[in-house]
Amino acid sequence: MTYAFRIAADWGTSNLRVFALDEGGGVLAEASSDDGMGRLTPAQYEPALMALIGGWLDPARVTPVLVCGMAGARQGWIEAAYRAVPCAPVGGPFARPKVESPLIEVFIVPGLSQAEPADVMRGEETQIAGVLAGRPGFSGVVCLPGTHSKWAVIREGRVERFLTLMTGELFALLSAQSVLRHGMADDGEGMDTDAFAAAVRETATEPAGFAASLFRLRAENLLEGLAPRAARSRLSGLLIGIEMASARALWQDEPTLIVGTGPLGRLYATALTQLGASAEAVSGEAMALAGLTRAFANIEEDKS
Amino acid sequence: MTYAFRIAADWGTSNLRVFALDEGGGVLAEASSDDGMGRLTPAQYEPALMALIGGWLDPARVTPVLVCGMAGARQGWIEAAYRAVPCAPVGGPFARPKVESPLIEVFIVPGLSQAEPADVMRGEETQIAGVLAGRPGFSGVVCLPGTHSKWAVIREGRVERFLTLMTGELFALLSAQSVLRHGMADDGEGMDTDAFAAAVRETATEPAGFAASLFRLRAENLLEGLAPRAARSRLSGLLIGIEMASARALWQDEPTLIVGTGPLGRLYATALTQLGASAEAVSGEAMALAGLTRAFANIEEDKS
């Protein structure tokens, strides 16, 4: 094969995905493994990376590898300090882990921090950079659904402020580990959209009822035989609804761009539509890659 | 010792507590074990009970044993059907598990159910009966804090309606199993009352901000070194605050009687006081025993 000119790596808590790029930013090859940050000690990062990219390296030169995500966390490979908003989504100084191989040099993208209210992100800033690479004049709100979903306000190429909500983690804990798990077995049939949408409206418009609405799922299972699919859909809707209540100031006055076109991204689009807001979606994977590709330019700036 | 005239048992998910009573309702002896509903198959209930009460049984007669709590759940010893509110907190028909010993007859107190909004309780109805045993004319709101806290409106000796909130379970999941656990190690120093009270006010008065307030605990830990004790206290306050928002219609117009005088009961009293409401507290253990003692009269009615 042609050797990689550059290598981009999206290194999250659970997975590592790498892309061999040519000089124009085209993808020559890609690979992935489950060597996420959650299972690696610092010494294990270089071997985990080399296991995927070793065959892409030109023995005659040093190939730059740009990494975004949780590999730059305090408990990751090496900490990449946060940059404080308002600022461009991606910029230096990049963290530089020491590597043993003479064939690579590694750069880790810094996360973003916000002083008041306190907040942090790590990984999503690169997806936001990907959004801006494709839409340089974008002004508005970007929503990045996930275990910890992020909402960011973008103005003139900068992240003005952002907000993190633990919605995905709450759903995982409540559906799998709380008393609600008894009526919520995943039958693989996806979501009941009507039950989901009604629950979104319920907590988005009356957030004070949120706490009371949770145990009602268990009671309806016991007393009325509420179906697991409807129960799961309602739990998801209640949680995304209270997220929408917390993020209302962000989405109510302008369209939201959702980063994620899979099932979760579609739920967020449904939720916003239910609340009378408008939403458009772009692929999360494509935005991460576009953001990393764009960020190689920042490395050149950082070096100079 | 004197043999028990009657035996009362409070059989929860994690523990079994039994009391040997004399003819006047006085406590001759008590014992407990960790043979809670959560670890027993139906066949293991009688041995678990006999292990504690065997020495209290008069060989010359059949001793009645009255049980409240999760032993009457569908996944317990034998299901004790729910009674629908509005109704007196305790009444027949009691569930009657078959027992091998000729020396005992066992009665399990039914739980309560509410059709709309759907809700159930099992165990707390007996504590409410204990409240009414001591205050026959009580009219008002009873709050029973716990893993699943209950709020009940009492009028003319009956439970009119009630509400369940999973506050304790949410606290356990978020503080021990979510990303928030990193900044929340229990240093055994109890709660920071100021941090707790401020968080209660925050979500009780602006419940829409609840979802946003959770991850902020993690961000403040990372960016500002928020102390574990303050973080735990704030998480507890945010959760009890959103409970207070959901239960506002119950506590805002009349005093609340809290069943529980331990640390959790005191947090609920602090929360209500912070919100300008008034609260009084009684011992949860004493109310369970008083309720069971009182309920022996219901068994006589049920038999006749």
Give a verbal description of the structure.
Chains A, B: It holds the Pfam family DGOK. Chains A, B: InterPro entries: ATPase_NBD, DGOK, DGOK_C, DGOK_N. Chains A, B: This is 2-dehydro-3-deoxygalactonokinase. 2 copies of one chain form a homodimer. By secondary structure, chain A is an alpha/beta fold. Chain A has 2 domains: 113 residues, Nucleotidyltransferase, domain 5; 182 residues, Nucleotidyltransferase, domain 5 (2-Layer Sandwich). Helix content of chain A is 38%, strand content 22%. In chain A, helix 2 packs across helix 9, helix 3 runs antiparallel to helix 6 and helix 4 packs parallel to helix 6. The model of chain A has no long low-confidence stretch (mean pLDDT 95). At the A-B interface, strand 11, helix 3, helix 5 and helix 6 of A face strand 11, helix 3, helix 5 and helix 6 of B.
Largest interface: A-B, 45 and 45 residues
CATH architecture of the largest domain in chain A: 2-Layer Sandwich
Proportion of residues in extended strands of chain A: 15-25%
* CATH class type of the largest domain in chain A: Alpha Beta
What gross morphology of chain A would you assign?
A: globular
Radius of gyration of chain A: 21 Å
- Which structural class matches the secondary elements of chain A? alpha/beta
> In whole angstroms, how far apart are the ends of chain A?
31 Å
* CATH topology annotation of the largest domain in chain A: Nucleotidyltransferase, domain 5
Order of strands across the biggest sheet of chain A?
3-2-1-4-6
Q: Summarize the main sheet of chain A.
A: 5 strands, mixed
**Count of separate DSSP helical elements of chain A:** 9
Approximate helicity band of chain A: 25-40%
**In terms of per-residue confidence, which ranges of chain A show pLDDT below 50 for 5 or more consecutive residues?**
none
Assembly context of the chains = homodimer
> What letter string, H or E per element, gives the SSE order of chain A?
EEEHEEEEEHEEEHHHHHEHEH
Q: Give the tally of β-strands of chain A.
A: 13
Could you report the average pLDDT of chain A, rounded to the nearest whole number?
95
